[in-house]
Specification:
The chain is an alpha/beta fold and 353 residues long. The protein is 23% helix and 26% strand. The longest helix is centred in the C-terminal third of the chain and has 13 residues, at 301-313. It binds NADP nicotinamide-adenine-dinucleotide phosphate and zinc ion.
């Protein structure tokens, strides 16, 4: 018997999110059923709900920064027990046997593609998956993460499941560490976690922002300075000096002013996925210093667990503003204006069944 689930959904690209009821499967095999306590609000939720990327399936229940407690387990579950604090990020399944899945990089699954926590195909219930803006979820144990943080921090841990791993993974991949000068472009949900994590890895971190008012926060989060990206003189002072830049901006913009700040052999990695493409960067900026422009997608499940453990060991959680479920549409409008410090997290106790 499937379980009735309460959530919030967008019914189309231009209607606000509103209460929605649907069914989830009961846990079977290696399934873990989770009562959701908190769900972070990622800019990808907004892009998807408002149809800014192609392919949104409606009704759309967003949410992929989920923290909750295990409420039931299937007979084959070995790693989790009822009552355990757990997390679920952007993926709930993948093919499990392609080269990327074999390497623990399920986000790059080469056959079916990973199954998104929302807007992915649901092989059991049919239709498409529904995400964390809901009171419970059922996920295979291989895609459930252990949360070891203090109980009081659970709301602030939720954004680690996407914002945390999406910044941790490229910082690790490009071997950020002591002695390196690292830039984080955009101080939003992803950006503020990028600052905290890169600083904890030992790098000298600088924030590029369109918001000079975020300077004190940038320093408090672990940055050495905040550089206003529209100030050409301030940018020029840093020419050819960065080892690595992580660009988290959610809107189309000129990449050249940032590429010019990379040293020879430096890399800028894009994680922001804007609604419309960036203008093509200048080839000269790349070839004359062997600079690289790259991209990165969330992180694998094992790496997500590694990130959660790293954050716990370094005392890192997200800076959050907790909201009620019925405040989600206002939160989206504020996110578009870069007015969030630095992640909204929905307290799921405010969702009325
Ligand atoms: P967010 O909280 O809205 O932060 C984005 C930040 O970008 C803003 O706070 C702002 O920072 C800056 N910004 C916004 N509009 C800008 C503009 N027009 N020009 C320059 N800067 C601008 O969003 P988020 O949740 O961190 O997500 C960021 C992007 O990453 C989204 O596109 C999201 O879909 C994507 N994403 C990708 C992955 C992945 O795996 N690759 C995973 C999650 C999210 P300042 O005020 O400091 O300028
Ligand atoms: Zn996300």
């Amino acid at each position: 018997m499937p379980t009735q689930t309460a959530g919030y959904a967008a019914q189309s690209a231009d209607t606000p999110l509103a209460p929605f009821h649907f069914e989830r499967r009961d846990p079977q095999g290696d399934d873990v059923a989770i009562d959701i306590l908190f769900c972070g609000v990622c800019h990808s939720d907004l892009h998807t709900a408002r149809g800014e990327w192609d392919g949104t399936l409606y009704p759309c229940v967003p949410g992929h920064e989920i923290v909750g407690k295990v409420s039931a387990v299937g007979p084959d579950v070995t790693k989790f027990a009822v009552g355990d604090p757990v997390g679920v990020g952007c993926m709930v399944d993948s093919c499990g046997h392609c080269p990327s899945c074999n390497d623990g990089e399920e986000q790059y699954c080469e056959t079916t593609g990973f199954v998104g926590t929302y807007n992915g195909p649901d092989p059991v219930m049919g239709g498409h998956t529904f995400g964390g803006y809901s009171d419970h979820i059922v996920v295979k144990e291989g895609f459930v993460l252990k949360v070891g943080h203090d109980e009081k921090d659970l709301a602030a841990v939720a954004p680690l499941l996407c914002a945390g791993i999406t910044t941790y993974s490229p910082l690790r991949h490009w071997k950020v560490g002591p002695g390196q000068k690292v830039g984080i472009v955009g101080l939003g949900g992803l950006g503020h976690m990028g600052v905290k994590i890169a600083a904890a890895m030992g790098a000298e971190v600088h924030v590029f922002s369109t918001s000079p008012s975020k300077r004190d926060d940038a320093i408090r989060l672990g940055a050495t300075s905040l550089i206003v990206s529209k100030d050409a003189d301030a940018m020029a002072e840093h020419a050819n000096s960065f080892d690595f830049i992580l660009n988290t901006v959610a809107a189309s913009h000129d990449l050249d002013p940032f590429l010019m700040l990379l040293k020879r052999d430096g890399t800028m990695t894009l994680v922001g996925v804007p609604e419309t493409p960036h203008p093509s960067p200048s080839v000269g900026n790349l070839v004359f210093r062997r600079r690289a422009l790259a991209g990165s997608l969330i992180g694998g499940i094992a790496e997500t667990q590694e990130m959660l453990d790293f954050c716990r060991e370094h005392g890192l959680v997200s800076d959050i503003e907790t909201i009620r479920m019925d405040e989600i549409n206002t939160a989206y409008d504020r996110m578009v204006k870069s007015d969030v410090k630095y992640r909204f997290v929905i307290d799921m106790a405010t969702l009325e069944g």
